[in-house]
Amino acid sequence: MPVVLREAWDTLVPDMTGRHGPLPPMMLALTVVTGLVDAFSYLLLGHVFVANMTGNVVFGGFALAGAPGFSLLASAVALVAFVAGAVSGGLAVHVARTHRGRQLLYALLAETAFVAVALVVTVVSGGPYTGGVRFTLVALLGIGLGVQNAAARTLAVPDLKTTVLTLTLTGLAADSRFAKGPGSRVGRRLLSAAAMLTGACCGALAVLHGHPTLPLLGAVVLLAVASACAAALLRSDAPWTRPLVTA
């Protein structure tokens, strides 16, 4: 089997006795969630991301320069909400620091709750999402994705950060044989990029040709399934459940 396909297969169907056990495919599912919610926020909430904060900093700069279509307040709300979510996610994973499955479950339950409330807001309010509804949705989704990022950072599954692809793509190129590197884990890194691309594409198609609530509905379904899987893993004492030792 070619190396790329083997790496992709090992990510999708991992060794349950390995250091990260079932975490890689779950991180891929969360990467799809990122694409779905950012498609919703960017296309329907006015040029703002709720998961990729680098974009919001740049958008804030555009707004300060007077570029049309960008809101400094929306970018600021997203940033503050994301930080609040990251703090909450940090608390959740540190409470469950002795078991990585429990860390993931606590974070997933919190994220699912915030995204589900955002879904309810979209259904009740109807579109277009302007004024207070817009900022409420930005805040709810920003908090939820901040929780997700805190969990992904703590779980530290290589190349599967769920939101940030810049370093993943850099590693794919810089570590490649063409760059005289040690090998770039192309299979796993391409899967990470493909997962976000899939989520963003599906989210955009749902917004443009379906119903504006569909991206959030899809995100809630994925999060609920991931939560159920994480709950089923709580009794495991395999090596992957033990916290990572950091210097």
How does this model look, in words?
It holds the Pfam family DUF1275. This is YoaK family protein. Helices cover 69% and strands 0% of the residues. The protein starts with a helix and ends in a 15-residue tail after the last helix. The mean pLDDT is 91. The chain has one domain. The protein is built from 9 helices and no strands. It has 247 residues and is an all-alpha fold.
Strand content: under 5%
H/E element sequence? HHHHHHHHH
Question: From the helix content, strand content and strand pairing, which structural class follows?
Answer: mainly alpha
- Share in helix: 55-70%
Number of helices: 9
The rounded distance between the terminal residues' Cα atoms is 36 Å
What's the β-strand tally?
A: 0
Number of domains: 1
Mean pLDDT: 91
From the alpha carbons, calculate the radius of gyration and give it in angstroms: 18 Å
**Low-pLDDT segments, ≥5 res:** none
The general outline is globular
What kind of sheet is the major sheet?
A: none
SSE topology sketch:
Blueprint: H1 3-12, H2 23-44, H3 53-64, H4 72-95, H5 100-125, H6 131-155, H7 166-174, H8 186-209, H9 214-232
Helix pairs in contact: 1-8, 2-6, 2-8, 2-9, 3-4, 4-5, 4-6, 5-6, 5-9, 7-8, 8-9
